[in-house]
Amino acid sequence: MSVTAIRMEGVLRLGFEGVDAIDAVNAEVLKDEALSRVGEAAEFVVDLSGVEFVDSAGVGVLVALFKTARRNGGRARFCRISAGVRAVLEIIRLDQIFEIYEDWEDAVRA
Amino acid sequence: MAAEGGKAALWRGGQEMVPDLAELCRIHEVGLDLIERSHDVDELLNRVLEEYERRLRELPGDALDGRAGKPGPESVRKLRALVMFATQAAALKEKAVAASELKRRAAEAESHRARLEGVLGALGSGVMILGAGGETLMANAAARALLGGEDEAVLARLIADGVPPRGEAEIDLPSKEGSRRTLVVSRRPLGSGEGAEVALVTDVTQRARDLEERVRLEKLAEVLRTLSVLSHKINNPLTALLGRAQILQAHRGTDPGVAKAAAVIEESSLRIAELIRELARVVKEGRHEALDDLLDMDQTVGGGRAS
Lengths: 110, 307
What we know:
The complex is a heterodimer of chains A (110) and B (307).
Chain A lengths: L1 E7 L2 E7 L3 E2 L4 H12 L4 E5 L5 E2 L1 H16 L3 E5 L3 H9 L7 E3 L2 H6 L1
Parallel strand pairs in A: 2-4, 3-5, 4-6, 6-7
Antiparallel strand pairs in A: 1-2
Chain B lengths: L1 H9 L10 H8 L3 H6 L3 H18 L14 H50 L3 E5 L5 E4 L1 H7 L4 H11 L5 E7 L5 E10 L7 E7 L1 H46 L5 H30 L2 H19 L1
Helix pairs in contact in B: 4-5, 8-9, 9-10
């Protein structure tokens, strides 16, 4: 379980390797790791492929990434979101706040 | 009780109603004063997001986990509160994006304006941007220098009154030192469709002075040419007059009146001859100062004769 960070076409791409759920069990670790990967980056895409479920703690990780991008003067984009994660984001209306794209290419172009 | 009423209103018919931020903060005991003082949408959004995060942390585990079964009433209440914050944050985000775009465009416009001012400032010619009402919107350094400390409105009024639209005219502008300056002003529409115009202002005072000097010199040259011709024409009969006066002197006999008259004629003829020579010198040198000297001398000659 780890957070990967690859810079492609000038945009940082974060991924959650070996993570099928972000919840109270792993949220704190993943959040620290993701934020350290982001560092001062202002523009990045969070690739959530493989993540099937998030609970409130998992949502907290995503909100922290969203806030960090804003604080760094840029924007975080989210892509390849599973139906389960999307359902949670819709329930708590984060789908209206986050920029969500189908795939990586769309997110980078946006 | 009021809070309960507020909550009821928020969940009418299963559809959440978004209250204004003040109401939302009152219900959920958020630092309203802090948020109300903030005029920065970005900052406001950050604060709402922080509150959102705080409430997210307080959300019971069953609130979002369908696997845990139906959430309890406390979970539902907290979830609804969270959703209200998210809705509010979404609205703020839209405003923040619009504000950011507005800020970007304003910065872009400011950058264009600064560049334009730089270019206009570097121009030697005066450039003024006039509003639809003829008021001065902008004047570059050269235009301000041409005005020499005069109010820009003075020139703007003179332009509006004296220069036809899309035309060109000369404007005489009195300076504080009492001299006058001549400006050529041309008006052109700016093309923005708002009636604004650009006025190009060029100082032609020196050009006008040069023209006046040229006309004066041409007139002087004509005077000198006339003098040259007159000198030549006077000289011939003068020579005859002088010759006859000398003959008369030689044959004056015993009549003292004749002798005196012959002497006067000879002396006057010599004076005229001297005057002609001076005129010839002036014409040759072509100097108007010499002509002034000559006129002084003429007065002296006249004065001498009178005495």
